[in-house]
Structure formats: structure tokens, C-alpha cells
TrEMBL record:
Designated name of the protein: Alpha-aminoadipate--LysW ligase LysX
One cellular-component annotation, GO: cytoplasm
InterPro entries: ATP-grasp (IPR011761), ATP-grasp_RimK-type (IPR013651), Rp_bS6_RimK/Lys_biosynth_LsyX (IPR004666)
Single GO MF descriptor: metal ion binding
Pfam families: RimK (PF08443)
Keywords linked to the UniProt accession: ATP-binding, Ligase, Metal-binding, Nucleotide-binding
Gene name of this polypeptide: lysX_1
Residue span(s) of domain ATP-grasp: 38-221
EC number(s) given by UniProt: 6.3.2.-
Length: 224
């Protein structure tokens, strides 16, 4: 957490000195914090899983029990984190981690688990300045689909519904470029899991012919 704050402060300082930061530090702040991202998606009517955030362990346990009573499974994620680290499914019977346990750090962040129709998978859609430049399907070796966690990549061409959702998500957080993580439920509805302001693209590049790095450089140079 201290490292995140320090790095954001450095970006603020650079911005105050007239250095162009791409993405902007405010956009990074809006997306590095999953709770703020969820809030912005929800308030801008962008479909996203039901989400809960709290600090109290008792409150967290009550949320978990309520979800269990409605036959819902919750996923707990670190508020600040990436690459699937610390992400876990919660069972109603298991003990809630203590507030200062690793990957909790005083705040509980829960999303409802979205079940997919076949093997666990989701989608990463890469957006640059309001345009979709590439997309992939991530198929997990477990229920976590991140490439860093062993997910396999396949190129996809997003349909109209997925495309519009990705663009709406990018607009909701007001960002120059991002990776939008989208999942499709059993009922066929798409929803946004996360918006990544510092998206890795090694996996995406492996299934995309055009150079993502070059697209970002070109977009950056157009702004100078």
C-alpha cells in the first residue's frame, strides 16, 4: 500500500511539473482501487457484478452468510492487486481472514462469482482512446483466468455487446488506454470485472498481429 501511494505521488509530482503522464495519475487512481472502479462502473450504469466493501470482519462474515442464503458464491480480492494474486472463492463454512492478513490489509472487497457456460474463462479487451484495438479470451487452468496464473489465450473478435460494454467501462473511468476484463454469465449477459490502467499485454500480443506497444506509442505521440 505504501508503495502504491508513493508511486502515485511521484506521478502527481511529475504532472505538477508539466510532464505529460500517460495514463493520467487520476485515471490510475480510479482503477488501481477496485472499490472506486466498481463504484464508477455502477454509477455509470456499466454492468458489473454485485460488489461489497467493508472493514469489519463481523460485517464481512454477515455479507458472506447472506450470500450463502441466496445460493451466491463470493470472490474476495485484494483492493490493490493484479495478476490474480490473493483472489479466492469463499465458502460459507470457512473462517473469514482477519483484517490484517495478507491480501486483506484492513479492507474486505467481495464480488459475486459469475458462473460461465463451459470451462472457466473471461475476456480482455484492450482499449486505446475510445477504440478497441485487440481482444482475447482467457481460459483458466483453474477458475482464475489471469495469464500470470496460467490462463491460456485465444484471439477473439468482440461482438457488439462486448465492444460497447468495454468502451462504456473505459469512458466511466475516463482513461486513455486500458485493459477491460469482461465475463459472460450463464444467461449470456456480459459484465465488467475490472478495468486495468497498467495492463500487461504479453498474452494478448501472442494472439494479435498488430504491435500493441506501437499503437500505444503512436497514440502517445499524437498527444504531444
Amino acid at each position: 500500500m505504501q508503495q502504491v501511494i508513493t508511486r502515485l505521488n511521484v506521478l502527481h509530482m511529475l504532472t505538477m511539473q508539466g510532464v505529460m503522464v500517460y495514463n493520467s495519475v487520476k485515471a490510475i487512481e480510479r482503477t488501481v482501487d477496485k472499490a472506486m472502479t466498481s463504484f464508477l462502473l455502477s454509477t455509470n450504469d456499466v454492468s458489473t457484478p454485485p460488489t461489497w466493501v467493508c472493514e469489519s470482519r463481523l460485517h464481512a462474515e454477515a455479507i458472506l452468510q447472506s450470500a450463502a442464503q441466496h445460493n451466491q458464491t463470493l470472490v474476495m480480492k485484494p483492493l490493490f492487486g493484479s495478476q490474480g494474486l490473493g483472489v479466492r472463492k469463499l465458502l460459507a463454512s470457512e473462517a473469514m481472514p482477519v483484517p490484517m492478513q495478507q491480501y486483506v490489509d484492513g479492507v474486505y472487497y467481495f464480488q459475486q462469482l459469475i458462473e460461465t457456460t463451459d470451462a472457466p474463462h473471461d475476456y480482455r479487451v484492450f482499449v486505446i482512446t475510445g477504440k478497441i484495438v485487440a481482444a482475447m479470451k482467457r481460459i483458466g487452468s483453474t477458475w482464475v483466468n489471469n495469464v500470470a496464473a496460467g490462463g491460456r489465450c485465444e484471439a477473439v473478435y468482440p461482438d457488439e455487446a462486448m465492444s460497447q460494454l468495454a468502451l462504456q467501462a473505459a469512458a466511466a473511468v475516463d482513461i486513455d488506454y486500458c485493459g477491460v476484463d469482461i465475463i459472460q454469465s450463464n444467461s449470456g449477459e456480459y459484465c465488467v470485472l475490472e478495468v486495468n490502467s497498467i495492463p500487461a499485454w504479453k498474452g494478448l500480443q501472442s494472439v494479435t498481429e498488430q504491435s500493441i506497444a506501437q499503437l500505444l506509442v503512436d497514440d502517445f505521440l499524437r498527444r504531444i
